[in-house]
Specification:
Chains A, B: Residues 33-52 bind DNA. The structure is a homodimer of 200-residue chains. Chain A is mostly helical. Chain A is 77% helix and 0% strand. Chain A has two domains: 1-52, Arc Repressor Mutant, subunit A, CATH 1.10.10; 54-197, Tetracycline Repressor, domain 2, CATH 1.10.357. The longest helix of chain A has 26 residues, at 2-27.
Chain lengths: 200, 200
């Protein structure tokens, strides 16, 4: 009997993640309503809180899927990339841009989920960020062999944040006339200049 | 009589901007309620919509003040800066960081105000952004005299977005242990490397 209950809980959990994922895709994080989810899942409102501690906890589960898809996209693009570490950084940044544009609401949800100031990011989140950061820090280590570990970590974080900032503000401004092609051009401009190659 | 009515409207407008500014400072954009503002201003709820077309329009007026304060802060820091264009960029970026940290909710409201996809950013917003961009593009023109106008504009936008991204993600993560001093270090690392000076 305990096995059946656990299986039913796990099935409800997956159903709720599927439904929340679709809801966020369609209307963004702010469109998510526990009441709608319960209705679509055919369960009582309270049943949601038997499998998730709160709605944020459910969004984190959706975000976990988004992070995995993002990681897979970057890995796929890297597989075809040239050996040149600068070009690898450019290709990853552009893959990040294309993923963000194609999955806008899911991507926004990764960053827009509010945490209480005293609440730390969950371990799996830090782990996923760590994996993405390894993709960046490896070519950086080749481009800048003289950076010590602390500087390389700071540079990796600064570089990811820079790419994120360019994609974020550009996609926001896309409605006021920033052509999408310019975003890839900006990413290439900044990264090639950062890496010290004179291709700009 | 018309003059009296206009003066009363103008006074109510200023009062509402003052109140909204305080409200956003305390609780952020999401804490803003028309009902509370009307109560604090001692006016009817409908009176707000005689002076602003909607609540977003009121937030834009608060954001205009924030942009002016940001511009003044950057100008003040620049007045004491060395003549070196790279160091001017670093000083401005760090001034941006300190302003964002000290005025967190006001600064977030600059970017978190939602616009309908078909709605363009208002002219005054684009004008204020343009002024900030001039501060950046002038030293960039000295560092990279060979960039053509279009490339310089892209580089300016990319550089502002990079600084914004570093400040945004770092302040968000401040609760998970990113020391504030590291943010200034990251900004210096990225900008000095971008400018091709070898001080990192």
């Amino acid at each position: 009997m305990a096995g059946k209950v656990a299986a039913r809980r796990a099935a409800l959990r997956d159903t709720l993640i599927d439904l929340a994922e679709k809801q966020i895709e369609a209307d963004g994080l702010s469109g998510l309503r526990a009441r709608d989810l319960a209705k679509d899942a055919g369960c009582a409102l309270g049943a949601i809180y038997n499998v998730f501690s709160d709605l944020n906890d459910l969004v984190l589960a959706v975000n976990a899927r988004t992070f995995h898809r993002l990681g897979a996209t970057v890995a796929e693009e890297l597989a075809d990339a040239p050996q040149d570490p600068t070009e690898q950084l450019v290709i990853m940044a552009q893959a990040y841009h294309h993923f963000a544009a194609a999955n806008h609401n899911h991507w926004r949800a990764l960053f827009d989920l509010e945490r209480a100031p005293e609440e730390e990011a969950p371990d799996w989140y830090l782990h996923e960020m760590g994996l993405l950061f390894t993709y960046i820090s490896t070519p950086l280590g080749i481009i800048f062999p003289d950076l010590d570990d602390e500087e390389r970590l700071l540079m990796t974080r600064a570089l990811f944040s820079s790419v994120h900032g360019i994609v974020l503000l550009s996609l926001d401004q896309a409605s006021s006339g920033v052509p999408t092609g310019d975003i890839d051009k900006m990413l290439g401009l900044i990264l090639r200049q950062l890496a010290g190659s004179k291709k700009i």
